[in-house]
Amino acid sequence: MKVLFVIPFLLISSGVFAQQTTVMLVDIMRINREHKAEATYYFENNWKLFRDEAIKWGVITGYQFYETDDDGQLEFILITEFKDEEQFGNVEANFEPILKQLRPNGPVMLNDVKPAAFRETISTKKATVVARRSSLLR
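The structure corresponding to this sequence follows.
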């Protein structure tokens, strides 16, 4: 009799307490050193701005912006975090109204230098979190 009670309980509780799979979008951008100021301005005043608003709208759960420079190549690593596959799958539809609201005339630039002159996309990948621990995470 105990088994008949335990099995349904486990099936129900596993569905209720199952963890969602966090999905990350990881972009690696090579930055032209001559135009680092333009690149930094562009990502802080567009990419970061859009993600701050996306968090408010609940369409992403977070983001990270890293700079690496240890192998002679200046690169920015841009990570956008989604709560699950569904949120990730709707990224373009969810970001479209945010971009239109915040930058209806397109991204703002530091000067006349265009993005193609200061950045090159090295890699764009979807990643799922297998394990994560940080004393910085709340």
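The radius of gyration is 20 Å.
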